[in-house]
Amino acid sequence: MASLARAYGRLLAFLFAAITLLWILVLVLVPLGAMIDQALWWRESKGDVSLAIDRLYNDIALAQLDRNSEKDPAKQAALDQQIAQKQAEATALEAQEKNPPKTYGFANFTRMSGLHFYIFVRTILYALMVTLLALVVCYPVAYVVALASGPRKAIVLTVALIIPYAINELLRVYAWLMILDYRGVINGVLGWLGFLDLDNRGWIPFLESPSAVFVAMIYTYVLFMVFPMVNTLETLDRNQIEAARDLGAGTLRIHRRIIIPHAKPGIAVGCIMTFMLSAGSYSVPAIMTRGQGGDWFSQLVYRQFYESNNWNMGSAYAVSLLVVCTAFILIMMRLFGVGLRDIAK
Amino acid sequence: MSTSTESRGAQFLLNAYVALFCLYLFLPLGVMSAAAFNSFDYPSVTQWRGFTLKWFVALAHDQRILEGLRNSVLVALGVIAVSIPAGLAGALILTRLGQRSGTMLYSVLVSPVLTPGIILGISSLIFWREFGVPGGLFVAVMAQSSFIASYAMLLFLARLQRQDRTLEEAALDLGASHTMVFRRITLPFLAPTAFTAAVVAFLQSFENYNTTVFAIGGEWTLVTEIASRLRFGLSPVINVVGVIFVVLTVVAAVTYVLLKGRRAVAH
């Protein structure tokens, strides 16, 4: 703080610190805390409480009947006491029914049904597969753009990559929807060649399988892998490659010993971005499945908020997703030996 | 021209691979654009019913899309107003902090960039409901700003690393006040970056879907409206929106390259 005051003067230093603090608290940390808090409590569902109240009133009515047909005053008094006790219980429950108390615990996490947990795991596995495939597909592209072409060609290629990257992700998903649709490009071409009979609904239902989401997801997020790799590879001194070649290293060895080690931060960033985007993507599954293919985890989260109106469960799902993504980032950082400063370049 | 560390055969294979990759990137966009000119009611290129411009006319009369466009611009302007000052302040603080406290603060400030968009939307939605603000344009501005401010901060930070501090120190020695130094030296130095950051913030906000869809509640932006059209009832009108996006992007990219090329020649 002292160094800040020296650099900017007290007034400005205070102003900058205040704005930064406001950003951290109002936009980042407190909303995150609110979400975690929301995930940790729940109210007993009204149905159970109402059922218990109904049961109590049944018991009371029965006891009342017994009481009226009872002659022995001692037994009458006992029944009276029983009725009063049940009445008090019912009143307490009725208050609870109107305004159920918050209960804190991890039940929102453990209550996730088997099907939802399966979807959770499947979403993460698919996201990992998208990441791995994108890495394999993009490495040669990044290598060519950054190292193996002249400056003019590199500019042209960069622009060729930036254009699809800059176009809205929904439109990129939509393009694949048109290709894989029942009467889309692939079915259309196959029908035209005579393999399929489209007029009698003899098309291949691509959109009903999760692989449609997978294909569109790779297309949508593949470029988030290319640019970080290009950025780090561009800083590699080409003389290193020349030297290695002159000393007799083969192509594979040059990649393994020189280019890939240099590209590490870029690979880590690319993997983190691609994984994070595909694991948390709502747009791609929502558009591609259109209610026909299987669900993705992000769709379950959305429904908890906007259809079931169960914000507590929804928050718990969101926190689970956040935990997985954070774990992925930490693992990648450890694996590739990069710090956060390298990541956010 | 090329470094030619590869043999001729390998070079050919690599080039073919990259060409194929570009084809993979552009072909789907071409399909989507072409369908905007097909007079068939359902977006398609295989069922061609003749060339038409009627979907462009339909778009011009589509009230919800036009309103969504207006909302998108409003949200984007709000995001610029929030995230540029926040990013600037964060960057100014970070450049003067020591290694350890700096790294801590840095982690917190860039963490929204690495967080899935839906999480940012959800946490903002929950946070603002506590204050009685339901999902809508305002919450969308707040949710988007949380990560767009980080991008702005990274841009400012990169610029500040190239700053020559002796200029500020000299001005202070000569008796200028801190406020004056900031206004006359630091701000002009950062002005081009502020412009770039504002453009980036506008585009990021305008294009954003995954965060916005959770924060927007009952209102809509152009992008959330496109998404709901894609889910319920496809129409070539959306392809027209796509064509406009593609054309604008290509024009912007080509202009950028031409400008860059001219600058390279001038130097």
Give a description of the structure:
- The complex is a heterodimer of chains A (345) and B (267).
- With 345 residues, chain A is mainly α.
- Chain A has helices spanning 2-40, 46-69, 73-98, 107-110, 114-146, 151-166, 169-180, 185-192, 210-221, 223-233, 238-246, 251-279, 283-289, 297-306, 311-336, 340-343, and strands spanning 41-43, 102-104.
- In chain B, 75% of the residues lie in helices and 0% in strands.
- The two termini of chain B are 20 Å apart.
- Chain B has 11 helices and no strands.
- With 267 residues, chain B is mainly α.
- The model of chain B has no long low-confidence stretch (mean pLDDT 90).
- Chains A and B meet through helix 1, helix 5, helix 6, helix 7 and helix 8 of A and helix 1, helix 3, helix 4, helix 5 and helix 6 of B.
Key attributes of the depicted protein:
heterodimer; A: 345 residues; mainly alpha; two-stranded antiparallel sheet; extended; B: 267 residues; MetI-like fold; 2 domains; 75% helix
What's a concise summary of this model?
The complex is a heterodimer of chains A (345) and B (267). Chain A is mainly α and 345 residues long.
